[in-house]
Structures are given as C-alpha cells and as structure tokens.
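User: Here's a chain of 159 residues. Predict its fold as tokens.
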Amino acid sequence: MRKQQGFTLIEVMIALVVLLVGMLGVMTMQYYAVSGNTSSREMRIATNLTQEFVEQLKATPYADLASGAEPDPVPVTETTISGGIDFTMRWWVVGDCVALSLTADNDTCDPGLATVCSVDPDTTQVVQSSAIRVRTCWTDKNGSDRSVTMDSLKWNENA
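Assistant: Prediction complete.
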C-alpha cells in the first residue's frame, strides 16, 4: 500500500467554498457596520447642531424671545452642509407657555407648521416662561427624511 500525500483537487475546492461563504458573511457584516456608522454620524451631527441652537436661544434675553425677535445672528431656518448632508434647522418659541405642540407635526422642518400651546400656563405661575422647540432635519443617503427635536424652557430672568 502506498501512502497518499497532499490534497486532492476536490478537497481544495470544498475548502475554498467554505472559506468563500465565511468571507461573504464577514463582508455583509462590514457593510452594515459602515452603514450604521454613517447613520450614527449624521444623528450625532444633527443632535450637536440642535443642542447648540437651543443653547443660543436660551442665551437670548427673555424679552427678545417673548417678542418674537430673531436672536442675532441666528436665522429662523439655517442649512449647514456637513459630510455632504444638508441639515435644516427650524425653531419655534411660544411665550407664556410651558409646553408647545406643532400643527400637523410629522417630524419635518416644514415652514408652514404653526405652534400651539398644548398646556395652558398655570394661573399660579409666578415666573413667565417661553417654550422653545428646535428641530434639525436632513435626508439620509437612502432618501429617508430624518429629524432630531429638542424642547426647552426659557424663564424670564428679570421677573
């Protein structure tokens, strides 16, 4: 009897097929990881932009916010391009309100959205406050509309 040495062509081809199936799984996992990272980056940028906008509005004197005056130099709508994505920010302020809602709110930055004070201020409310809502919208690489919304209150610091 002669000792057999080496691999046959069939064994090598089976090993390559098994290796290929494993590599396809790794490549698919890598695709989803990169896609998730992109989505996470967009969400992080939108959240940071929204937070900065809220902080700028909260730094605005109460009298200017309550009168509806536009804080300088922040416009009502702002578009920022970051990483090839356009981010649109909208803000709404309602004086003498502790909670606001938007008419036909569907998480868009539609300029036609109007604000409504959804909770009447308490008659025993000692300090005047304004409800603030800031929303950042963008369209992701898949064409889906995305948004981040933050709400805050600005108290009358002079009352």
